[in-house]
């Protein structure tokens, strides 16, 4: 699904109003109803609700929500910050529609700020996608006042003070919401780790914006939904044989880190590779044969580290490299050889990335390959350098993808995938239980298996990251976030494939 900018969102609203020949307040009513339905489902009317409105359409939503919650027996108090004379037309319309028993209280001085009980529910409808400057003055004091309360804050569309699609200057005040309920599509700001404290948990509620507008809108930003994934998964014909599903090579493992190789290998098998060979240091040979009997094992000439490549390397149709490999000098030489000689697609992770990050010559050789790099943020920084903020980091990532003609899977809570064409895909599966050693090795195995099965590199990244997170989500009810380990992801990978296959059928 596409992620639209603030300007495109505004245009989508206008297009929908025109296309459906409705008044703009009717679309606002849809938005307010969708928010209210979410709110009703989440909170019972036993807690007092304090609603803070700005003078624009976000504030207009706040007024309509006030009316709807009042109808549903919530005790609501509503405040306006800003000049009512300059309010938007739809704000004024909804002001008139407020039931007479509800007074809109004006906040003109700090002394007008109400004390907010800890058990109260606050709805932030100060500013949405129309924010056009940093929040200062009385608005900032109000935002700080709300943030300092112990009440649960739910933001309408956007946490007030946060820009939708560009860096918010540090000096402005920003609401720290527990929940953000956004209309139709998530906003780019929700996908950036630096915004977690403001956005909280985000939810999207549909308001039937024009599908024509959305499908014709141009963007390089996407988030992956179950519906996007359905079309990707390939089915298997009855007369399938293992030769159809590729022969992958994994170069991984080292002294004390054979577990990484085992995890990557087991995940690769579970992700459907036809044949798998794992090349590891001599010390890992017996370990691999014992723990992954489905895979073939090759022993490096070096006891503890990878120092050479298999002699028949051309026969593999993809090579996954890096988990547990270390950065010994002999291993660096082997990676140099790999980049200089091999022709097949590469999936580079962990120490393979660290080794390449340390050498301009190796980095330049990326251009000669079809390659996916799967760094976590620290490996990313070694490869590309420090970025000023999360927005710049995405730009730096796309620039690197373009310059080196590669795919990057920047791992994290909402993993971002960059392509050489300049597209960015944010993943939507996964949970904090995955923040444990070895889960990245599992991802390397999955993506390598998908490339082996002739998914394009872009498909392998998108589908692999989605399935990896989905496996963790499916494991969650049984193992919980604290106890989740990387092996759980492999154990639940079959269920993840089954779930995706079911929806594609
Ligand atoms: N018909 C529509 O356009 C719809 C709009 N919707 C809502 O409307 C919102 C967008 O509404 P608007 O475009 O009116 O914008 P907002 O209500 O987000 O904010 C714009 C208002 O705030 C002022 N403002 C902006 N930044 C400020 C700052 N830093 N300090 C002080 N004042 C500031 C502007 O001068 C303007 O009065 C969405 O987020 C959504 O909540 C929804 O009701 C869906 C339908
Ligand atoms: N809080 C989180 N929410 C969702 N996914 C997470 C979270 N933390 C980590 N992950 C995922 O777990 C994996 C961790 O990979 P990585 O850091 O390479 O681990 P390792 O090197 O131990 O294998 C990545 O796929 C990342 O996206
Ligand atoms: K808001």
TrEMBL record:
Belongs to the NnrE/AIBP family. Homotetramer. GO terms for biological process: metabolite repair; nicotinamide nucleotide metabolic process. SUPFAM superfamilies: Ribokinase-like, YjeF N-terminal domain-like. Its EC number is 4.2.1.136, 5.1.99.6. It catalyses: (6S)-NADHX + ADP = AMP + phosphate + NADH + H(+); (6R)-NADPHX = (6S)-NADPHX; (6S)-NADPHX + ADP = AMP + phosphate + NADPH + H(+); (6R)-NADHX = (6S)-NADHX. It comes from the Bacteria. Residues 225-500 form the YjeF C-terminal domain. (6S)-NADPHX binds at residues 57-61, 128-134, 139, 157, 260, 324, 376, 441. Pfam families: Carb_kinase, YjeF_N. Keywords: ATP-binding, Isomerase, Lyase, Metal-binding, Multifunctional enzyme, NAD, NADP, Nucleotide-binding, Potassium. K(+) binds at residues 58, 124, 160. Its cofactor is K(+); Mg(2+). This is Bifunctional NAD(P)H-hydrate repair enzyme. Catalyzes the dehydration of the S-form of NAD(P)HX at the expense of ADP, which is converted to AMP. Together with NAD(P)HX epimerase, which catalyzes the epimerization of the S- and R-forms, the enzyme allows the repair of both epimers of NAD(P)HX, a damaged form of NAD(P)H that is a result of enzymatic or heat-dependent hydration. HAMAP family: NADHX_dehydratase, NADHX_epimerase. Binds 1 potassium ion per subunit. One of its GO terms (molecular function) is NAD(P)HX epimerase activity. NCBIfam families: yjeF_cterm (TIGR00196), yjeF_nterm (TIGR00197). Residues 9-215 form the YjeF N-terminal domain. AMP binds at residues 411-415, 440.
């Amino acid at each position: 699904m596409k992620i639209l900018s603030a300007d495109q969102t505004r245009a989508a609203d206008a297009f929908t109003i025109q296309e459906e020949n409705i008044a703009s307040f009717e679309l606002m009513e849809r938005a307010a109803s969708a928010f209210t339905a979410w709110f009703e489902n989440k909170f019972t009317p036993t807690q007092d609700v304090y609603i803070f409105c700005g003078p624009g359409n976000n504030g207009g939503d706040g007024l309509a929500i006030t009316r709807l919650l009042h109808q549903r027996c919530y005790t609501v108090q509503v405040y306006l910050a800003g000049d009512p004379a300059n309010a938007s037309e739809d704000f004024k319309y909804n002001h008139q529609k407020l039931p007479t028993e509800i007074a809109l209280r004006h906040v003109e001085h700090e002394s007008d700020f109400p004390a907010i009980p800890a058990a109260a529910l606050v709805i932030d409808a100060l500013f949405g996608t129309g924010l056009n400057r940093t929040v200062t003055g009385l608005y900032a004091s109000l935002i700080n006042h709300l943030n300092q309360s112990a009440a649960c804050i739910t933001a309408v569309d956007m946490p007030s003070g946060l820009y939708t699609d560009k860096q918010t200057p540090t000096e402005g005040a920003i609401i720290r919401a527990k929940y953000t309920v956004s209309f139709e599509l998530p906003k780019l700001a929700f996908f950036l780790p630096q915004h977690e404290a403001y956005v909280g948990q985000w939810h999207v509620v549909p308001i039937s914006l024009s599908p024509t507008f959305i499908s014709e809108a141009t963007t390089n930003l996407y988030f992956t939904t179950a519906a996007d994934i359905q079309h990707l998964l390939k089915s298997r014909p009855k007369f399938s044989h293992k030769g159809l599903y590729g022969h992958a090579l994994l170069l991984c493992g080292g002294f004390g880190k054979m577990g990484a190789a085992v995890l990557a290998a087991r995940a690769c098998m579970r992700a459907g590779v036809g044949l798998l060979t794992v090349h590891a240091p001599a010390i890992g040979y017996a370990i691999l044969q014992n723990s992954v009997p489905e895979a073939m094992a090759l022993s490096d000439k070096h006891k503890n580290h990878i120092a050479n490549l298999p002699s028949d390397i051309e026969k593999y149709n993809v090579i996954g490299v890096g988990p547990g490999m270390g950065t010994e000098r002999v291993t660096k030489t082997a990676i140099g050889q790999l980049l200089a000689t091999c022709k097949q697609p590469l999936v580079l992770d962990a120490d393979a990335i660290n080794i390449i990050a340390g050498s301009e010559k190796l980095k330049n050789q990326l251009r000669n390959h079809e390659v996916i790099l799967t760094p976590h943020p620290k490996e990313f920084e070694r490869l590309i350098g420090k970025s000023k903020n999360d927005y710049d980091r995405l730009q730096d990532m796309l620039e690197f993808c373009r310059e080196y003609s590669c795919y990057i899977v920047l791992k994290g809570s909402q993993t971002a995938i960059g392509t050489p064409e300049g597209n960015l895909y944010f993943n939507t599966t996964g949970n904090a239980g995955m923040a444990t050693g070895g889960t990245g090795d599992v991802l390397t195995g999955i993506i390598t298996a998908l490339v082996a099965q002739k998914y394009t590199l872009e498909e392998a990244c998108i589908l692999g990251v989605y399935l990896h997170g989905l496996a963790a989500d499916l494991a969650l009810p049984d193992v919980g976030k604290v106890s989740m380990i990387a092996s759980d992801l492999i154990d639940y990978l079959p269920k993840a494939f089954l779930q995706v296959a079911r929806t594609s059928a």
